[in-house]
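I hope you will forgive my troubling you with a question about protein structure. I set the record out below, with my sincere thanks for your time.
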Amino acid sequence: MSDDLRYPIGQFVFDPATAAQQREGWILDLARMPGELESVVESLDDGQLDTPYRPDGWTVRQVVHHLADSHMNAYIRIRLGLTEEAPLVKGYDEKLWAELPDSLTAPVAPSLSIVEGAHSRWVTLLKKIAPADFQRTMIHPQSGPGTIEKYTGLYAWHGAHHVAQIRNLRKRSGW
């Protein structure tokens, strides 16, 4: 398995020393991502949607549904982080979620709508909170404590990462 196929834009790296300067760009990335996702899947047929983006990887359909699942959870976690003191946020098994029947067979349009709606609210929220709020912490059961700032960067990367996987599959496949 090639890391280029799995991580076409590289792996996420968070540097607290430069995060505040990157914050505005991350928020812009979160704002653009739903349109980029819709654009990269809009003309795909069911056969193409059911094609894995890499050997032993998820299908395009699963990736789209995963983005809806993941980014809904992230938006809710951010809200918890803003309204509770260092909350323990709920984790989930993304691999098992990707194998549920809706992730395997459902049309992607509802998940595209979920991503669009969640990102619209998320971006509005991030643009309005105080700079100090980005330092609020949440505790994830697997990855431990993380700030809202770190999660903002992580999910900006996460969306771009999966869009790039689909875009690269389209290019390799001549779609």
The radius of gyration is 16 Å.
